[in-house]
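Quick start: read one record
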Amino acid sequence: MLKPPAGKNKSLLSVILILSFVIILSGCAVTGPYVSEEEIKQAGAELKVKALKFQIDYLVKVNNIGYKLLLKLPEEDSQGNFVYSGLLLSKIDEYFVKLYRLSNSNGVVVTGVVEDSPAKMAGVIAGDVIKSIENLPINDLSDAAYVLNHKAPGQLVELAVLRSGAKINLGFRLGSKPWDVSFRMVDEQEVNAGAMPNLIVVTYGLMRFTKSDDEVAAVLGHELAHITKGHHLKGSGINLISMLAGIAAGIGANKVSPGSGDAVMRSVSAAFGSRFSQDFEREADYFGLKYVYLAGFNIEAGVDVWERFAIEIPQSMTRNFFSTHPSSPERMVRLKKIVEELRSSPSLNNADAVVKTKN
């Protein structure tokens, strides 16, 4: 029996294997129902709208907690009286049109309203399109910011909004807040938060990491204390360029959009470059937990969230971290002592405060 040369036999076998592999792949490619590019595109658009709703929910949650802390600041930590409406606004894009079923992408839409705020009590709701404020047309976020920033606390504001195609007139008196501080979300998965002189930013990673409003309050209270105690102005904060960028980004209303990547949000991520001394961090721990207590949150959440952070994210415990923060054991001991001090302080008697009782 004649046999082909060994080399040709191997070549023939290789060709057969390659052809078999191609046939298998081709069969897999056509298995199951056909999905068109248009269907994929439509599904992608629907997911972006759902992602937008997810982001807005977090943004509203952070603002509800943040303003509860801010409005309960003790008088000695107040900087003044600044205009407060409770409106969270965004420039309309195609995703907001789909989310709120709007007729077009012109103007500014209400993405959220802070609980117990003047706008909330006046009946403003998410999805309202702001057509005018004080009879001045609102076409962009800067228009709304200009009008509101030229009003004073206690003054009446009249809004014309479009809701489900119908024009509605609403009015309320502007409230006041003790610091000109706003709260924003940053589309980062890192567990982080940061502060600038008029801005506190929180990542989506941090919101996923925290397990309760009390834990979020503990983080926001710490960042708020950095602001009220002027740590940025005492030589240990971020550089001047980053600070000015944050101040500029803090002017106006909140903006979130999963489609655009949100350049404004990326610019304020410079807040995460803040580097404070260990003494400033200790001061922020103390007064931050005090603010949490005065606002009626569970003050032991500050201990819980820091302990879990140290346990679950040990890679954050680096030399650079310890150069600007107290060690984890020191922080744990100090926070527990602060809790005990707040519990027993008659000068901080707060009927709304919550202290977790251990079994």
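Residues 236-270, 318-323, 351-359 have pLDDT under 50 and may be disordered.
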